[in-house]
Amino acid sequence: MKRILLSLTFLCSIFSNAQETGENSLGSWHMYFGTNRVSEKFSIHTEGQLRYYEQAENFNQLLLRTGLNYHINPNAIATMGYGYITTDGTFEEFPDETNSREHRIFEQLILKNKVGDFLFEHRYRLEQRFLDFGETTDTQHRARYRLQVTLPLTKTFFLNFYDEIFLNLQDEVFGQNRLYAALGVNVTNNLSVQAGYLKNHFPSANFDRLQIGVTYNPDLRGIFNKNDSGS
Questions:
Q1: Which residues form the signal peptide (predicted)?
Q2: Per-residue pLDDT tens digits for 13-25
Q3: pLDDT tens digits for 51-60?
Q4: Of the residues 124, 177, 213, 227, which has the fewest C-beta atoms closer than 10 A?
């Protein structure tokens, strides 16, 4: 219990020091993630995110992403997927920005390892981005690397941290960096909830976001096996 209270104090101190630079409003991201196992080696990734300039209002971005995962072994997963993103960039502080739509293809490798009680996850991702600004279109390529560390506090509570860097494969190399800290709750064996804070750093600004994330990983192998046996 003492570790949980110390963790809450740490996260609250981060929240209180948010909004140092960049946008004046503290925004929010509301997220769902799912990994649905369909066979011993394959699973389906599902994801939806609603991002706001302010707390659950003043829409900024909708992100929908899916992919097919290949489980090389328990600590290595390869993925190929697709994302659809719509962005409203016309916040009052950015009058020159325009709305955009994006179709995105990505390739990804996740490697996991454990050191003591700490669970490490390395995520390597390549993205091909097809952007539509209405009057103009653009194609861009990007590489991303995320180091995530999870620390179980009890069987129910855990801490989650990550840092992710985005590197453009054209023009200016540095794209952005995301630093994240959260307290999570394991509701069931395949359902968890996290509440945390994200510092999103761009070359010209920093943005502060509160995040609420739900991860639900039901195993669908029983459904698929049942359908196969009846065919």
A1: 1-18
A2: 544 444 443 467 8
A3: 998 888 888 8
A4: 227
Boundaries of domain holding 57: 2-229
What is the C-alpha R_g of the chain? 19
Q: 76-114 as b/e, with b when 16 or more CB fall inside 10 Å?
A: ebebebebebebbeebeeeeeeeebebebebebebebee
Structural domains counted in the chain? 1
Give the DSSP letter string of 159-223.
EEEEEEEEEESSSSSEEEEEEEEEEEEEEETTEEEEEEEEEEE-SS-EEEEEEEEEEE--B-HHH
Enclosing H/E stretch for 5: helix 2-16
Question: Which backbone phi and psi does 61 adopt, to 5 degrees?
Answer: -155, 140
Is it the case that residue 157 has pLDDT exceeding 80?
Answer: yes
CATH number of the domain at 125, please. 2.40.160
